[in-house]
Design brief:
Length: 289
């Protein structure tokens, strides 16, 4: 018997395509249009081709912001992923402590980004901030507004405090999804805690860790509000990341052409890196080489 298909179901997808077109595709095409033109004002535009792309890629300020961005993204991933796994393993598995722990962990995720920057701006001040005052009492010469290393460390610690709970929640959900039979078999075999983690828990966490790393990597490349509120990108350019470089070009200098070209490069790089990373993880997970 020949199967019949109801193509009217595609009508339900049309609203989604319309929304995506207005929220993503049309703005993207506008940016592409700006990236190949020199805009002097309303109605004053001249086609320049790939000139803005060449100029942007040769900009030494972009090179510096890119290296800082890569260093920042790799640093927070190296801290947040192992820390998130460790905290998820330490959380209770039953009783009222589960709900209490998860609610407390989720609190930083509910705080708006600009408020996070303000909280740490006050917390890290040596005169009125609890953290800065404590370091001063311990004899540590700490000033995030003056020292580039202090500013860098403060931004990293702030991001770890803000986003590690996301990794914890993902890992905790992955751990709870492991069937009890695995643990029972390990107990019968006399497996140690490390063996349980190495051969049972960690392999089962591969999927959620892939999601966590991809989310944190992409989000780290979008960081703007927190360091802008905390340090304004300084001292100097110590905490000026790619998003701040873009905002300065587009809003500060109103260079729409170069800013649009950089936006396209920015987008393609994140897309390419995420695809390569996801492909590599999937090959490892399926045992391919």
């Amino acid at each position: 018997m020949e199967k019949t298909y109801n193509n009217r179901a595609w009508l339900l997808v049309i609203p989604v395509f319309v929304i995506v077109a207005f929220s993503a595709i049309i703005p993207l095409m506008t940016v592409v249009n700006y990236s190949v033109q020199d805009i002097f004002g309303p109605g004053q535009r001249f086609f320049v081709g790939a000139e803005w792309y060449k100029e942007t890629l040769r900009d030494p300020r972009l090179h510096g912001a890119f290296l800082r961005q890569i260093a920042f993204s790799l640093t927070i991933l190296a801290i947040e992923v192992p820390l998130g796994i460790a905290i998820a393993l330490a959380l209770p598995t039953r009783g009222w402590g589960v709900s209490a722990s998860l609610v407390l962990l989720a609190l930083p995720l509910l705080i708006p980004w600009n408020v996070v920057g303000t909280i740490w701006q006050i917390f890290a001040r040596a005169d009125i901030g609890l953290g800065g005052r404590l370091l001063a009492e311990l004899g540590v010469d700490y000033n995030y507004a003056r020292d580039p290393i202090d500013a860098w460390i403060t931004v990293v610690v702030m991001d770890v405090w803000h986003w590690t709970p996301l990794v914890v929640l993902l890992c905790y959900s992955g751990l709870r999804a492991i069937p009890p039979a695995f643990y029972q078999a390990a107990q019968v075999d006399g497996a140690s805690s490390w063996a349980v983690f190495r051969y049972i828990q960690l392999p089962k966490l591969t999927g959620v860790l892939t999601i966590a790393v991809l989310l944190r990597f992409m989000d780290s490349f979008l960081i703007y509000t927190e360091p802008f509120v905390l340090t304004g990108g300084g001292p100097g350019n110590a905490t000026t990341f790619l998003s701040q470089f873009l905002a300065t070009a587009a809003v500060g200098r109103f260079d729409l052409g170069p800013a649009a070209a950089f936006s396209i490069i920015y987008f393609l790089f994140i897309l390419l890196f995420s695809w390569l990373f996801y492909t590599a993880i999937m090959r490892i997970q399926t045992g391919e080489r």
